[in-house]
Design a protein that fits this description.
Layout (H helix, E strand, L loop, with lengths): L16 H13 L10 H19 L7 E9 L3 E9 L8 E5 L13 H11 L2 E5 L11 H15 L7 E6 L1 H15 L7 E5 L8 H9 L7 H12 L22 E6 L5 H14 L3 E6 L15 H32 L1
Parallel strand pairs: 3-4, 3-5, 5-6, 6-7, 7-8
Antiparallel strand pairs: 1-2, 2-4
Helix pairs in contact: 3-9
Length: 337
């Protein structure tokens, strides 16, 4: 059996010269755009196009990875959209459910295909990258409802929860935590592990605004994020339990890896989630990469730290799946003995 060693303890290093240049260039070219892009639905549509172009140039899609679109409608699950992303030699009995970032209004499986493909190749694990409905066309709770259905659909394809790692970035990290809590509180079997890149925690943007006073994000202001979330929230109270997640002591979730950039607007959110999970009794690891921007893992053309971080995430999820498989096999042996 092929094994993968657990990633060594994370040791922070100063950002590379390329990362420092990317930060400088982003602050001078990308952040000023929020003062030019119009507000409202037109602004969202313009931002979607701009962001898709930027992400296409920031990351690479590796060779040897197969992408198969999915768009099916069934009576049991409704419409399921996404894509299978398969490495050349996938490990058997393992799958990743990936939830792309979006600010709940932007991006898609297509914009995140380079990141997801690299994760599939590094881990040698098949990925189902799920599409979910976006605001302003589809405000809360459309996105978490779609994610729940995607997870149940994945299980209906023959995967067991102990064979699944749920991963996501930014709003996708928010959805990852939401799904885990929904499953836990429903008394259902949990997936083997969770991976979150630059996860969102606070939709009120209080943490983001406080962070901005100390370390302004090179991409977007707290006010820009707040405007984006307004399309998703509409009149919903941001303290709704599926928007502001509270993990109580004793609500133990699967082993979790959180990675965030030290220069980004969601660094405080990442710390908040890690603190909640640690208090709950969850095995959680937090890596804050100095000088890195939001979801820097997607920008391997720009910063060398992107591939390094993704390799660590791949090793974490594989060892987590292997450990869960071994535990499941041991439990089955005890039952039959």
């Amino acid at each position: 059996m092929v094994t993968t060693t657990t990633p060594p303890p994370y040791t922070p290093h100063p950002p590379s010269a390329r990362a420092r240049f990317a930060h400088w260039a982003t602050r001078r070219t990308i952040r000023p755009l929020e003062h030019v892009v119009p507000d409202g639905e037109l602004g969202v549509k313009v931002t979607r196009r701009v962001l898709a172009t930027l992400m296409a140039g920031a990351g690479t899609t590796p060779a040897g990875v197969e992408v198969v679109p999915v768009d099916s409608t069934t009576e049991s699950f409704g419409r399921i959209k996404g894509e299978w992303v398969r490495p050349a030699t996938p490990r058997p009995g393992m799958v990743i459910l990936y939830l792309h970032g979006s600010g709940y209004a932007l991006c898609s499986t297509r914009t995140h295909r380079p990141l997801v493909s690299r994760l599939a190749k590094e881990s040698r694990v098949t990925v189902f990258s799920a599409e979910y409905r976006l605001a302003p066309e589809h405000p809360f709770p459309a996105a978490p409802e779609d994610v729940e259905r995607a997870y149940d659909w994945l299980l209906a394809q023959g995967w067991r929860p102990d064979q699944v790692v749920v991963a996501g970035d930014s709003a996708g990290g928010h959805l990852t935590l939401d799904l885990a809590l929904v499953l836990l509180r429903a008394g259902r079997e949990l997936p083997a592990g969770l991976v979150m890149f630059s996860p969102l925690a606070d939709v009120t943007c209080t943490l983001i605004a406080e962070r901005e006073q100390a370390i302004p994000d090179p991409m977007i202001s707290a006010e820009g994020v707040r405007k984006l979330f307004a399309h998703y929230l509409l009149d919903t109270d941001p303290l709704h339990p599926r928007l502001t997640h509270v993990v109580a002591p004793g609500e133990v979730l699967p082993p979790t890896l959180i990675q965030a950039g030290g220069a980004e607007f969601l660094a405080a959110d990442a710390h908040h989630i890690a603190d909640m999970l640690a208090t709950s009794g969850t095995d959680v690891r937090l890596e804050v990469w100095p000088g890195q921007m939001h979801v820097f893992q997607a920008a391997n053309r720009m910063v060398p730290e992107a591939d390094r971080a993704l390799r660590r995430a791949a090793r974490f999820l594989v060892t987590t799946l292997q450990a869960r498989a071994a535990a499941t096999a041991g439990n089955d042996h005890e039952v039959t003995a």
